[in-house]
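Bumping with the actual sequence this time:
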Amino acid sequence: MAEYIPRELLPAPESLVTDGKFNFGTFSSQFRKVNPLDADRPLGFWLPKPLLGTRLKEWQAFQLGNNRWFMLAVLYNAKVSALTQFIIYDKERKKKYTFEKMLPSWQIKVPGSIWDASQSYRDKECYVEIISRLAGGRFYINIKVHDQKNLPDMEAHFEAFHDEGTVEPIVVSIPFAKNSGMYSHKCLMLMQGTLSLGDEKIEFLRRESFAIIDDHKGFYPYVMKYDWATAAGFDSRGQLTGFNLTDNQSLDPEKYNENCLWVNGKLNLLPPVKFTRSEGAAGDWLIRDNYGMVDLIFKPVSMGTINMNFLVLRVDYKGPFGYCNGFIKDRSGNKVDINQYFGMGEQKYIRG
């Protein structure tokens, strides 16, 4: 088996797009300006920015949890539609609480920067807010959901710690075409906060709780498809450990991917991976690479689905929560055991 030589980790330029050209690569820090709409003909032909923006898919998502609870908070704008979600999974009771609302695209506005910005959605039934203060090393997630059929009232307030020097994010710009692609900022962080679930009050302590950010913008192809999995937990020494693994439409996955392992805040770059599901999305997901660096089994325990098929839009989405087991090798070639780490996966197909 060939030895894996990690791709270069670069310092981030000032902007995602410079003089009309995407800066592709894997970066160690955040762009000051995330400006995909400044790209020259990213779809292969000229469009005014308002129309170009209708092809840019954008979202901010956080996975959050501790040894018992796992949560997903999302504000998502696919331009053909938008979505807000707050999902809670209680591993002890094996019970899932799902709030989601499909929205017109104009009701979700994803900010162009995470240095100092916020976004939110509010109506009479819910409030979902994400405050990004990367300059100060903080993210805040505030959620309130009430008066929902078959759901207890839910309220959450979380603070995630992106302090410089204690965590290392992975920031990527991945080509899907000559001058078009996706940007993402992901980072595994410690987190603290509170959750109210009906009459139950749950405290999340910083020493035992985590958050993973996914700030994301992309000119995906008309047919968008990818496989993805992430999970986190604390090892036997109390170190926060987690991973992000994706198989997407990158033109050159060896050079451009977003695969990584975090151990105690430190980033380890990983090679391309493939997902195998011999029993479908509800069965085991095998996640492996060609270098012996990644060997995982993701076992879904709770499935989320979205299925739509209209004339111009088709969505076939599977988003299970579940447990990961196996190993990933770090930058020194040492095996890092992934033992019953809880997380989520996606098998996504969108035409539109």
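The tokens above came from a reply further down the thread. The chain has a mean pLDDT of 96.
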